[in-house]
Amino acid sequence: MHVVPTGFKDLFILEPKIFEDPRGYFMESYSYRVLCDKGLDFKFVQDNQSSSKKGVIRGLHYQNAPYAQAKLVRVLHGTILDVAVDIRRHEPTFGKYFSTTLSAENKKQLLIPRGFAHGFMVLSEEAEVFYKSDDYYNPQSEGGIIYNDPSIGINWQLNPHEFILSDKDKTHPELSVANFIFE
Predict the structure, then answer these.
(1) 97 catalytically annotated
(2) pTM higher than 0.70, yes or no?
(3) Any idea of the CA torsion for 56, 182, 71, 171, to the nearest 10 degrees?
């Protein structure tokens, strides 16, 4: 597995080795040992999966301490724009975002540490997204940042008239007034 730095502390793209033959392909999508050998000690405890239509934005979500979560995100079907916003106040990348295209075709994964808000937009007609988290979901600890916060300026790649959001995701606060605690 190849670990690609993103320019954000502890945020990485993982590119698995893919072995193809006439039957199809095989890949190791996760190995605790391989990540530990690269200094990435994440013990994932929960798997989550969603299916969404083109234009759906899920996010930007985070969990507050003591239930803050690191995530390992990949796409099983379709294509998404995956976005991580650094909300660690002490980092020089605070308030900045990283985005990458994850797809069933490219098989890349995004490893997102605690201290980031996460969201994605579906770019294909449908997408199935799977992610691991290193702590359990706790509804009392959830938080969010509005997807179109002008101080962050995320380029979601589709026209706003194509966006589909939950009522909750339409009402998150901007970064400047969001309440997040990670340590």
Answers:
(1) no
(2) yes
(3) -10
